[in-house]
Design brief:
This protein has about 190 residues and is mostly beta strands. About 10% of the residues lie in helices and about 50% in strands.
């Protein structure tokens, strides 16, 4: 996440989150989060030890917590990529164990409906609209009574994220796919 030059004058944001899952998409192996927001700086590393079923949470290079996890636990980012490997259906709920290294929860995402959307670029996509349950999420999502995150993924085999929208107490954002290359089939209806 990167704030625009205009917003930088008020509150500069330079965040990077990386999730690493095993090649079979059966669980996470590592999660990295580098936050630079205003004067706040944080560097987090979570190592998922699948042999002992523990997640080790490191902050600024020092271990801060060791947490028991279940088999098949994903970090918050890799959990999204896991959902891309599933056959999605309208009115269904996806559940999977998730950990950010500080806590372990059963994450849920609701597949609300199939929807054809047109992006600002003029490209049209057949998508599934998904909403993750944010009740276990902190930060601005926790501070917002009606916080919502919506994800539109293509209804084809690629499951590309083509739009993301969020509304929280301090505002909202929308992100849209700008380009995709090397796809074998189009996802337009």
């Amino acid at each position: 996440a990167k704030s625009t030059r205009f917003i930088d004058r008020i509150y500069k944001v330079r965040d990077r989150i990386e999730g690493f899952a095993d090649t079979a998409m059966k669980g996470s192996v590592m999660y990295k989060k580098k936050q630079r927001e205003g004067n706040y700086k944080s560097d987090v590393l979570v190592v998922f030890d699948t042999d002992s079923n523990h997640a080790r949470y490191y902050k600024s290079g020092k271990i801060r917590k060791e947490l028991p996890i279940s088999v098949g636990t994903f970090d918050p980012l890799s959990a999204f990529y896991y959902t891309r490997s599933l056959e999605l259906r309208e009115d269904s709920v996806i559940q999977k164990p998730i950990s950010d290294g500080k806590r372990w929860v059963i994450g849920k995402a609701h597949v609300l409906r199939r929807e054809t959307i047109t992006l600002d670029s003029g490209d049209t996509y057949d998508t599934f609209l998904m909403e993750p349950d944010l009740s276990h999420v902190g930060g601005v999502f926790k501070k917002s009574k009606d916080a919502k995150l919506q994800l539109w993924v293509t209804a084809d085999q690629h499951r590309l994220l083509v739009r993301i929208r969020s509304a929280v107490v301090i505002g909202s954002f929308t992100g849209e796919l700008v380009s995709a290359k090397g796809l074998k089939t189009a996802s337009a209806p």
